[in-house]
Amino acid sequence: MAFASLRRLAAAALMAAAFSASAGAADAPQPDRTVDMAKLLQPGDLKELTIGDPGGVAVVEYASLTCPHCAVFSKETLPQLKKDYIDTGKVRYVFREFSRNTLDVAAFVLARCLGDDKAFAADELLFAQQDKWAFVDKPLEPLIAAMRSTGMTKDQATQCLNNQKLADGVVAVAKRANDEVKLTGTPTFVIDGKVYGGELTFDQMKAILDPLVKK
């Protein structure tokens, strides 16, 4: 009887472990729709903000600097995505500026004024400090202040914000996204031609990417 009881306990423990493992693994979310990935990856008016091996699986994120969910993804999910997929050459991550309002345009323009090679890092900085500038009554001054750590002076920022050509380029990115992807919100991700609206956790990203990077 004692041996049989031990067997039952062992079986129960194995079942519990199996259930725990399956519960911890996220299922890949269902995409909202599909798009022509080759067409989507064609260059636009502004230089692409991208990190990772050009031969990796393309992950395109459309994000707004005033979007709280985008900031959460930037701070909580992207670092792990970089470590496991981007830095290892499995993924090419493409960040596209989706302006929801004039403050987004101003923030993206300031980041771009540092140079295309530094713009993505500046966007990450603005996400990290989003609560200091994005949700205040007079956001322009704190936005400019947030850029000071990049070396940008107030005079340089003021001059940058008068760059209409650059502002038009930022707006064009959002217009193209609306035309090609039919965005309903931010963040929105496009992976392997599939459109996923809303913030994705790392486990959800992993569930989407693993079948693709293992091909």
Automatic annotation (TrEMBL):
<dbReference type="GO" id="GO:0016853">
    <property type="term" value="F:isomerase activity"/>
</dbReference>
<protein>
    <submittedName>
        <fullName>Protein-disulfide isomerase</fullName>
    </submittedName>
</protein>
<dbReference type="InterPro" id="IPR036249">
    <property type="entry name" value="Thioredoxin-like_sf"/>
</dbReference>
<dbReference type="InterPro" id="IPR012336">
    <property type="entry name" value="Thioredoxin-like_fold"/>
</dbReference>
<comment type="function">
    <text>May be required for disulfide bond formation in some proteins.</text>
</comment>
<feature type="signal peptide">
    <location>
        <begin position="1"/>
        <end position="25"/>
    </location>
</feature>
<comment type="similarity">
    <text>Belongs to the thioredoxin family. DsbA subfamily.</text>
</comment>
<feature type="domain" description="Thioredoxin">
    <location>
        <begin position="10"/>
        <end position="214"/>
    </location>
</feature>
<keyword id="KW-0732">Signal</keyword>
<keyword id="KW-0413">Isomerase</keyword>
<dbReference type="InterPro" id="IPR013766">
    <property type="entry name" value="Thioredoxin_domain"/>
</dbReference>
<dbReference type="Pfam" id="PF13462">
    <property type="entry name" value="Thioredoxin_4"/>
</dbReference>
